[in-house]
Amino acid sequence: MITSGGMGKAEKGLSHKLIRTYLSLLNDNEVLPGARCFYTEGVKLVTDGAPVLDILASMKEKGVDLVVCKTCLEYYDLSSQVQVGIVGGMPVIITAQWKAEKVITL
């Protein structure tokens, strides 16, 4: 679960650097998560200009489901800017959680 536009509560540049490093290391691993869900400000990471689009696209190509909250996109007026992932509602996010052995929230 990714709930912010970066990682941690830090200045934008640092939080972007941290999430990029985290996702890069995860993407380079042989064991990938089944899904990544993006909600609240986390949806900003799948839209135009996000600092991790290339990594997320690579994860998607490797079979990781990227689920993006439709309500959050609409709230931030970002629906037309989605570059990667499946736009869905809370039921899709809940299903991804049910399928997971473990849920980690960033």
Explain this structure:
The chain has 106 residues and is an alpha/beta fold. Helix content is 40%, strand content 11%. It is built from four helices and three strands, in the order αβαβαβα. A three-stranded parallel beta sheet has the order 1-2-3. Helix 1 (12-28) runs parallel beside helix 2 (53-61). The chain is globular. The model has no long low-confidence stretch (mean pLDDT 90).
In short:
With 106 residues, the protein is α/β, with parallel strands linked by helices.
Average of the residue pLDDT scores: 90
Helix-strand pattern, N to C? HEHEHEH
What is the oligomer described by this structure?
single chain
N- and C-termini, Cα separation: 6 Å
Binned, the helix content reads: 25-40%
Uncertain stretches: none
| Apparent shape | globular
For the biggest β-sheet, the strand order reads 1-2-3
Strand element count: 3
